[in-house]
Structure formats: structure tokens, C-alpha cells
Amino acid sequence: MKYFIKTYGCQMNVADSGGMEKGLLARGWERGESVDGAGLVVVNTCSVREHAESKAMSFVGELVERRQKGEDFRIIVAGCMAERMKDTLKKRFPLVDLVVGAKDIERFAELIENVPGVIPADKKSEVSEPSGISAFVTIMRGCENFCSYCIVPYVRGPEVSRPADEIIEEITARAANGAKEVTLLGQNVNSYHGKSANGATAFPELLEKINAIPGIERIRFMTSHPKDAGDELIKAVTRLPKVCEHVHLPLQSGSDKILAAMNRGYTLAGYSKVVNALRAACPDVSITTDILIGFPGETQEDFEQTLRAVNDIQFDFIFAFKYSPRPGTAAAAKPDDVARDVKEKRHAAILSSLNGIATQKNATLLHTEQEVLVEEKRAGQWVGRTRTNKKVFFESVLVLTGKTVLVGIKRTKINSLYGTFIKIAG
Ligand code: SAH
Ligand code: SF4
Ligand code: F3S
To answer: What predicted TM-score, i.e. pTM, was given to this entire model?
Structure first.
């Protein structure tokens, strides 16, 4: 029997889908590429914005319709939206066989045993770690920062760090299976505090331990929270050779009034201090961010402060989101008072500013040689990333999957670089 998993949301959800796959493979299921022919469809949902929920909801609706028309497969709705709506989802869609909220996702394999028809054979086998050049490894679950707009603490629960030894073991196994790069996932990795055989391990020590794993060449992590990003993090980025020169540091807003209303725990000056220290210690570091537009009470002046901050800080990339009230959060009690067309306009202004900044930044890489970890061949071109997380495309007749190569950059765009192969590095 085949399963198909459709994943919405962030990298954490992608990693969770990987965990669910492992459970299914161990029970004799095979991976399918689409709903057609699948005996089981898992929808791993996201709740972060209304739009994310409506996409997942309409996919579930489609599945239910196909079932009503006579197709035979089980439907499982999992993840953050499943957690938020676990009491109503089954009422709304009686044909959904099981709802597994984000807080229960680690018990997925156990929970599906109760669904009739889900275990095709009583075969349970050991499944090896997935192969792949780039591995995503969850180091902590949940969040307790309660930014006033955010649903994550409600659907993922309080912050729990995974034991360091377990993380090291997983990464060692992934490296043995061909992984060269690992991305450590958590809502706020800087506050990681895991147990290990000889006491507690904080984030910088965890990085140090991973840095010692043979086979792993690059270490990335996200997300860093500006309120917890201090000297230790900067030291890790500069001193540990495998830790890449890229930090994703969500600013959200450039207005101190809005930052306080968001409960972010830092001011623009505090944020800029972290950025300046990072750049002083590591001039090539790439800094990307998230900007939240149209938070309740955001005036034109507040927004202009954000725009100025974006222009001053010169981010390498920006993910800009329009505020969407999330039921049950503190901000949802305030009127969503920035009109939709104003949000649109401000969003467009951020993107246009990003366009200028990122294009210009990438142009400085023209005619440089970049170290690229090659991931795959796509449409005849090799694709990999620089240590600063920029995508690079180039051609070569050699088989280069998983190799670190030097590429001469010949052309640059807002979010990708194009070049010619020089040689395999090292
Ligand atoms: N833990 C990360 C972010 C997780 S959510 C952090 O602290 O930055 C990813 C991004 O989604 C956030 O940075 C924010 O910009 C955006 N986001 C979160 N809640 C949102 C909401 N209610 N409406 C619109 N965007 C939101
Ligand atoms: Fe949400 Fe804030 Fe936690 Fe990030 S740190 S997940 S934005 S509550
Ligand atoms: Fe991620 Fe969406 Fe959940 S962003 S943590 S999948 S709400």
C-alpha cells in the first residue's frame, strides 16, 4: 500500500513529515507521489496565517469529495491546524479518519494503529535514516515566547529541548547515510537547553559537538530570536569552521512601539546591536529576516520606521507577511485596523526595497569564486548553495551530487547566482 503526505507550513513541519514517513515505512507502507493510487493520505497542516489554513482546508475538502465519489483511501489530518481545530475537524469532515495535532505528532506511529485498515501487514521493520545531502533535524519543539500575534505557542505547546546525545546520534546516522549539511530547527534555537550524559548543553556547546561529527561539512540553524542572540552565538558563527555564515534573525518591525505591542522583547536599537556585532566579527555574514506588516495599530510612521530599518540594515533577504489575526492570541483581541489595501501597499513597498538591496548585494559577488555544496541536478543544471545560503546554478558534465565545488560567479539575480564550474574543492 502507498501513502502520500502533503506538507504545508515551515521546515519544522517538513521535518515532522519525515518522522511520520519513518513510522509508515516501518509498518510496510510505500511512498507514493500523489493521491492517485494512495491508500493513505496525510495532510500536515499549518496555522500561522488564515491563508495557510484555508489552503490545507480546501485540500482536505478535495480529499473528502474524492472519498464520497467512491475512491478508497484513509485521510489523516495532522500538524498545527489539526491541533487548533481538533475538536471541530472531525465534525466538519466525518470522513476524516484521524486527527493528529502538532503536540501529538511524535506519537503518530502509535496513534495510526487505531485506524482500521492502516496497518496492511503486521510487519514492523527498522527503517534507516533518510538519505540526502541536506538534513533537517529538530532540536527543540514548541515555543513559550508568546509574541502577541503568533499561534505557535498554542498549537505546539511549551518549549522542550531534545536531549543533546539523541540529536548527535541522529546527525551521526544521517552523516553515515550521506548527509553533508545539517539544519537545526527550533522556533528559538538560541534558547536551546538540552540534557546530555554529562549535564546540560546550551546551544553553543551543541554546535561544538555537531562540529566534531565526521562527514558533516556545514551546519545551519533557524530560527534565532534577536532577544536571545548574544555573544556566544556570534562566537559560534565565527569560530566553528562548519557553522555557516548565515543567520535568520526575524525583525518583524522597525517601530519600538509595535515591537513592544508584539511582545518581542527587544528594540530596534537592541536588534541593530546584534547585527553590528555579527558583521564586525564576520563581515561576510548573510542576514535574512521576517517582516510582519499591518500589526494592529501600525501607523504610516511606524511602517516608515520599518522601511528605514530595512534600508539601513541591508538584509540579504526578507520574508514579508501581512498580519492575519489568529484566534486566541493576545493581538486578536485588538481590532485588525490596518486596511487590506494599506497592508498590500506596505507589503509591496518592502518587496520593492528588498529587490533593490538584494540585487545590489548579490551583484557584489560577480566575478568572485564561491564554495558551493551541490545538492542536485535540475533541468540540466547543477544546483547548490553558498555558505551564506545563496542558490547557485552552473553546468558540468561531472557527477557532483554532495561535492563541494568552486564556482566562478558570472551573473546574479535577486535570489540566485549563476556561474561556471572551476573545480572540486579540497
Ligand atoms: N519562531 C520564529 C517564527 C515562526 S513563524 C520567530 O520567532 O521569528 C514565521 C513568521 O511568520 C514570523 O516570523 C512572522 O513574521 C510570521 N507570522 C507569525 N504569525 C503571523 C500572523 N498572525 N500573521 C502574519 N504573519 C505571521
Ligand atoms: Fe511565534 Fe514568537 Fe514563538 Fe516565533 S518566538 S514561534 S514568532 S511566539
Ligand atoms: Fe510551522 Fe505553521 Fe506550525 S509555520 S510551527 S507549521 S503553524
So the answer is: 0.95
